Amino acid sequence: MRFVLGIVVFLLLVLTGFGIWLKFEHAAPSGAVRVSSEAVGRHAAVDVEVDAPGWPGLKRVELLLTSGGQARELFARDYPETSWFGSGVNSDRIRVERDLVELGVPEGEADLQLVVATHAWHFRSPRQRTVAQQRFRIDLSPPLVTLISTQHNLRLGGCGAVVFTTSADAVKAGVAVGNYFFPAARGYFSDPNAMVAIFAVPQDLNEDARPEVRVSDAAGNSLTVAVPVQIKPRKFPEREMPISDEFLQRKVPELVSINRLPAQPDPVKGYVYINSEFRKETERQLKQLTEKSVARPLWEGTFHRQSNAAPMSAFADRRVYKYKDQVIDRQTHLGYDLASLTMAPVEAAQNGIVVFAGNLGIYGNTVVLDHGLGIFSLYGHLSTVAVQKGQEVKSAQVLGQTGQTGLAGGDHLHFSIMVYGTHVDPVEWWDGKWIKDHIAAKLTMLPAAAPPAQSAAAPSAAAPPAAEKAAEEAR
Q: Are residues 284 and 215 in the same domain?
């Protein structure tokens, strides 16, 4: 009996000793703090990681900011005990966001300290310790902006240009119109702090839209300055588009196959999907293709209109699609449809660089040109393409031939002018006086920088033999 009792006591002592041993800290906690950049603005965001190996787990996490000789608590979290061993929480990932202006933090150098305490017992080590530090700079002042160009007369679906200077700390600048943003180009003028932005008043807004110059620095500080404008109201035409069975049976399977779309057993539903959802996907792809542009105008004078081509539709037609006299869809047609002869030569509207040549969703075989300062042109539904990506082209140079690829019912050219992927009315760019008054005049408000010794775009690429042959046939 005594032997059994001794064994039990011994086991209890072992278990008690083991439990006490687990309660002590055997590995120090660790952590990391990360801020988004070396300069932090008013709205500071800090990512915190903490790890506390062992049974006791975390007890408290504090994030302290020291600036101007004063320490401030940005964040604190307690982890209460859930058992005799501790919290049982061994790690945590935290995102801390604070308004530094509300906290009264001054600009200048600052230090972050991540302080961690655990529920573990300690012999000599402190109950809480700094496990991570980071130094950064607090910048609460936005960049400065001075408008150079003043009054702007615009119309819905049209364009404008604004010239302004900003302080050297600006890392992002452009014009915001509603939810649209049009980047500004730096480097065209001799003043390194001068910028020009060509922007649109998109057709889906109204005359109450107000363009604003918006600049921000690396710390996220931003400044917005209203652009003085007068926007003329405009009503876009409406047009009914009858859809035939022949068109559905011909086009829906073709587009599904070429673009690897989901199978569409119902031709009408398939057409609606292509005309709406796939149209949106095409525009998203086009937006990506036109994110970057040469920071100077490549065009010279008026944009060229296709030779001997009659308009089949105007810009921003509000189209109503009908099948057997029933409305099945509504869309806005973003561009001009121009037609002359079958497989007619398609000419570049102005000097530019090919940024895309190939199949582009609802536009079929397509060429997209960058004309500089965010201005792009699109040539869709082509039967042949005579240029390749990266190639420099001249105004009126043949790009290919008209056709009916993509979502086209007959042979024609779909032509668009865009500002960073936002479609605008080409009529303005076909008007030399409009370009002179609204764009060119703004580009002479400050001295221009010396022209680059080499083209700022990709080197001119000679057309491959097949493209040369197609271009020759198109002529």
A: no
